[in-house]
Amino acid sequence: MLFALGSPVAFAGLLVAFVLGLVIRVVAIRLVQRRRVPAGWDVPRRSGGKLVDVRRDVDIFGVVAAVVGGTGWGKKLEDSGMAPAPLRTLLAGPIAVLVASQVAFLAFILVAGPVSLGSLSASSVLRGDLSGGTSVELFLLSLAVGLLCFGLLDLVPLPPLDGWGLLRHAVKRPGTGFQKARYWLEDQNVGIAILLAGMLLPLFRGLPLFLFLLDIVCWPFLLLWG
Hints:
The protein has 10 helices and 2 strands. It is an all-alpha fold. It has a two-stranded antiparallel ribbon with strand order 1-2. A hairpin with a 2-residue loop joins β1 and β2. The chain crosses the membrane at residues 6-28, 95-117, 138-158, 192-225.
């Protein structure tokens, strides 16, 4: 978001997108947990019954990534013993955020009318590199792309993202190699280091790795709405 400071409206849209992404993800997870709690699981209630708690649900490294890279992530879902969080719980967060991003895109189209978004890149929006349009249009576009990037990034199979839990569900019989990878990525926080490096260090065409990948993955969504 620091790169978007030159465009206050875009900065505001990205900031709201990140905060909304955190809140929507947590609320979706808590609602699923409270609706059906598997055996051995206990829905956290340290926050006095609140659905969202800053200390419990905000990852400081995710905030750093958002401040510098434009988008970030929330706190890792705690495992139940050696097993990952339930599949439906892991899917609830990113799916809810992605749905919210499509609602934001719809609001943008209703305000701006038919526009061409196919030539726009997600990284340019995350860096506030926008021109033309009214303040409301720029805010809604930044909000929509910010939510879209938050939801897609959360599906990357690296801890502490929900995509890592999904990968662990996919690996039915983890071998020694996977256990070693889990030890380094999860227990030794190498996953967080990779995520931060991939969000902050320029690598492809002057872009960090994950912003470059977000450009590719977000393009079909931009083309759909544009």
